[in-house]
Amino acid sequence: MAKFKSSTVAVPEVSATPGHVAVIMDGNGRWARRRFLPRVAGHHRGVEAVREMVKACLDRGISYLTLFAFSSENWRRPEEEVTLLMQLFVRSLRGEVSRLNQNGVRLRIIGDLSRFDAKLQALIRSAEELTAHNDRLTLTVAANYGGRWDILQAVNRMAAEHPDRLGLWREEDLAPYLSMAYAPEPDLFIRTGGEERISNFLLWQLAYTEFYFTETVWPDFGAAALDEAIQSYRKRERRFGRTSEQLLANSPMTGATVALGDSAATAAEPELADGKRLYA
């Protein structure tokens, strides 16, 4: 069964820091074009930005980070670019999985993986198995993923297992079959690069998520930019169908001011048990 309930079924806990951040990493090509570089250079810099984002989430106590790396529609891009993206995906998995494991990060890959070659599928399984017991941060990478595909595959699997319940299904019946049944719904959705749409990403899961759009392209999105997004998130009133008065009456934070301040951006980087810097 799904570990977390839908926000339309039960009101989730809300805290000053989002527990789950989902990101559409947009703008790699524009970053490269502005510097008169090939598009692939932007994708390489985008991988470095992922590394920085993982570290920033660890430093801020964010438990889940979900990144939209390659949509099911991205196969429509030029064949040369798709090939380069697949090669970069393979190199990134090989190069980063050990680092992720050392820092307590669990890696999950969601999407229709059947379209990837057998070598890449085996690499994905190996990376997931290596990090399966880590619990400091769950990093989910959506690859060949689409929100409509996710809902459709969940319905098909549920119908195959419970054909006798046709017409009787509820939200909580479908939830265990979704790709991210292991995670709470995102609290904060970020899209970089100036576009303001969700592009078939987590259509079911983003029902009550707070959206944050920024002109900053992904290769330039670092810890300071994440703090700006969190500041914006903290100014939102997450009602989940309730009134403002109900929120005030039920909130343990009534009368208190929650602010990011300078500490999150300037605090000394935590150390691991062996004295090494976090995500070194």
Automatic annotation (TrEMBL):
Pfam families: Prenyltransf. It comes from Rhodocyclus tenuis. It is an enzyme of class 2 (transferase). GO terms for biological process: polyprenol biosynthetic process. The keyword Ribonucleoprotein does not apply. InterPro entries: UPP_synth-like, UPP_synth-like_CS, UPP_synth-like_sf. Homodimer. Keywords: Magnesium, Metal-binding, Transferase. Its cofactor is Mg(2+). Catalyzes the condensation of isopentenyl diphosphate (IPP) with allylic pyrophosphates generating different type of terpenoids. The active site is at D26, N74. One of its GO terms (cellular component) is cytosol. Substrate binds at residues 27-31, 39, 43, 71-73, 75, 77, 191, 197-199. This is Isoprenyl transferase. Gene3D superfamilies: Decaprenyl diphosphate synthase-like (3.40.1180.10).
